[in-house]
Amino acid sequence: MTLEVALRHRFGRFDLDVAFQAPAGVTALFGPSGAGKSTLVNAVAGLLRPDSGRIVVDGWTLLDTASGCWLPPHRRRVGYVFQEGRLFPHLNVRQNLRYGRWFAGLADGEDFGHVVELLGLGHLLSRRPAALSGGEKQRVAIGRALLAGPRLLLMDEPLAALDEARKTEILPYLERLRDDTAIPILYVSHSLSEVGRLATTVVALDRGRAVRVGPAAEVLADPDAVPALGLREAGSILTGRVVAQHADGLTELEVSGGRLFLPRMEAAPGARLRVRIAAQDVILSRERPVGLSALNVLAGEVAALRPGKGPGVLVQLRIGQESLLARVTKRSAEALRLAPGVACHAIAKTVSVAPADIGAAAAGRDAGG
Amino acid sequence: MRVDWLPPEAQSAVLLSLKVSLTATLVSLPLGLLVAHALARWRFPGRQILNGIVHLPLILPPVVTGYLLLLTFGRQGPVGAWLYDWFGITLAFRWTGAALAAGIMAFPLMVRAMRLSIEAVDPKLEQAAATLGAARPWVFATVTLPLILPGVVAGAVLAFAKAMGEFGATITFVSNIPGETQTLPSAIYAFLQVPGAEGAALRLVLVSVAVAMAALAVSEFVAGRIARRVAGR
Predict the structure, then answer these.
(1) Where are the alpha helices (DSSP H) in B120-233?
(2) Which of A26, A49, A356, B154 has the fewest CB atoms within 10 Å of its CB?
(3) pLDDT above 70: percentage of residues in chain A
(4) Preferred mutation among B121, B132, B228 to probe A, highest tally of A CBs within 10 A
(5) What CATH fold (topology level) applies to the domain A3-220?
(6) CATH number at A235-360
(7) What is the ipTM score, two decimals?
(8) Could you tell me which residues come within 8 angstroms of residue A224 by beta carbon, excluding any fewer than 6 positions away?
């Protein structure tokens, strides 16, 4: 299951020229507004006809200007979840969910019940969209796209219009979607936190160009990619297995380079979790620290350093099989004589990890960078 | 009510007017919907010209419209001669001609109401329907049409009311023949020409007002119900 996209499009002074390939899972299109994310997604959906390009989903060609192939939107089998939901106001939830099935020639099979259960829509079926909350609307929109039997799901900032509580409510559903279905997802976001939770592959866009493409754990931990992703929010993801739930409200996670203590996360022992650790929350120490309140100390070695324009420097550490990004001052880096190959300890406070940055990880995937 | 409350020719004028107006409204409804959709959503050369032609009956003196109809659809007119030669249809001086005149005079009002309601539909909903597999005609039938129904009803009722009141173009095109082309306004006009018939004219005026009010009430009721259903309340 692969997604192949190559597009060139020009309108006014904006110039889009992007090419990437992505494997199954969630491919996150990340970048600031005006980077061309929505243009790209609309071209994949067929709502916009690019000047030239080629889009192939798992061998199914949606667009190929070289051979004059252009499928109209209704024949693309692409499920599109819009930022504003776009539910049909004159239909109830059940009718909205069924809308695409008729055109796809799908009967009301057991997958209807499965999706309703996956998204928690059972009690909403006879309601009208006007009587739904923002989070419920978005879940129905996801279900509607999913039930049309798509070969590819497009999500254009599906959480952007929601408050934090609603986002937290929906993210687990998206994780289940990623891990339980084989449908590739193209996910537009300008939130690194969402990308850290969901992405298998990251495509970083800036001013119409793909500046970085690669596996999420790799791209997010790459100091050279940080300028494109945003310095303030930069952070890398570690994946591990729950080994214990402690009575004092901590979840213990085993990652490839040691143990992490996280704020309580409801997950059975053995479950796989991924956690995003912000680069600016990581402290570095050459010696193993003693008498420290911070619970998480991981031993590793420096892999790369990237000085920024200001007083900071980004340090990439190898921790077991994974990479961790730390942001410290140039002064500290010099004082510690940090250089590639130098052994080093990374320290992260448990309470600095936001619950929103901890999520489920697919079994067997995302294991290390 | 006494049977002779309305003289027989006045009764037939009321019935004829209802028949003419209903025919005009129902026949122009699909065409009006198509033109309104084209004006609201399609981009094609000549869109402004089409808009102008649709609005012409609204701004021309009705007598001029009636005369143009006579020139075009009269037995000697280009379209009228063709209709007669091929189908044996005559419009001039027939009730069908009255329906044509009423329909054309009411058309701009119908199109305006429908166009406004189509423009109020968010094209993003239609895009969403397309991504869910609906081809253009299905998008219209399952999303656009249900959402614009209040506007369609309003446009149809407005057209019906306008057709009931049409006078100038009708009398010019099909004259004022009792039992064939004498509609309600023509009959009122005829009664006013005859000394002593003011009573009958006044009663016809009352009927006219009653029909107009009833049409308005029905339209408000239906449009309100549909709007509530569409809004999901």
Answers:
(1) 123-131, 136-139, 145-165, 168-174, 184-193, 198-231
(2) A49
(3) 98
(4) B132
(5) Rossmann fold (3.40.50)
(6) 2.40.50.100
(7) 0.82
(8) A306
